[in-house]
Amino acid sequence: MIAEPKEKTSVKTKVTEEYSLVLYNDDVNSFDHVINSLMAICSLELMESEQCAWIIHTNGRCAVSHGVYSELEPKCTALLDKGLSAKIE
């Protein structure tokens, strides 16, 4: 015999949309500038920043950070202020 639960419970989940902060290749900024900017603004380690810089160089773009829009927006603005091409997608 299966016992019926005495109380009905419901689980509410909060759905948050995740975005990507994408950095694009350009012909203006040096590898060092891109790497240093990613380390300072996106808190990436040196090796991660170097890998992203190479991906950007070879593929034209790279998602450098993921999260909710409100967390990515200040990072995107900071990258743009450093002369880099960035967009939240």
Characterization of this structure:
This protein has a 3-stranded antiparallel β-sheet with strand order 2-1-3. The chain has a domain at 29-88. It is built from 3 helices and 3 strands; from the N terminus they run E-H-H-E-H-E. By secondary structure, the chain is of the alpha+beta class.
Quick recap:
The protein has 89 residues and is α+β, with helices and mostly antiparallel strands. It has 3 helices and 3 strands; from the N terminus they run E-H-H-E-H-E.
Instruction: Please tell me how large the radius of gyration is.
Output: 20 Å
Helix content: 40-55%
Question: What value does the average pLDDT take?
Answer: 91
Major beta sheet summary: 3 strands, antiparallel
Distance between the terminal alpha carbons, to the nearest Å? 53 Å
Structural class: alpha+beta
Q: Which geometry do the CA atoms define? A: elongated
* N-to-C SSE string, H for helix and E for strand: EHHEHE
Strand order of the biggest β-sheet: 2-1-3
Name the quaternary structure: single chain
Low-confidence stretches: none
Range of strand content: 15-25%
Number of helices: 3
Task: List how many beta strands DSSP finds.
Answer: 3
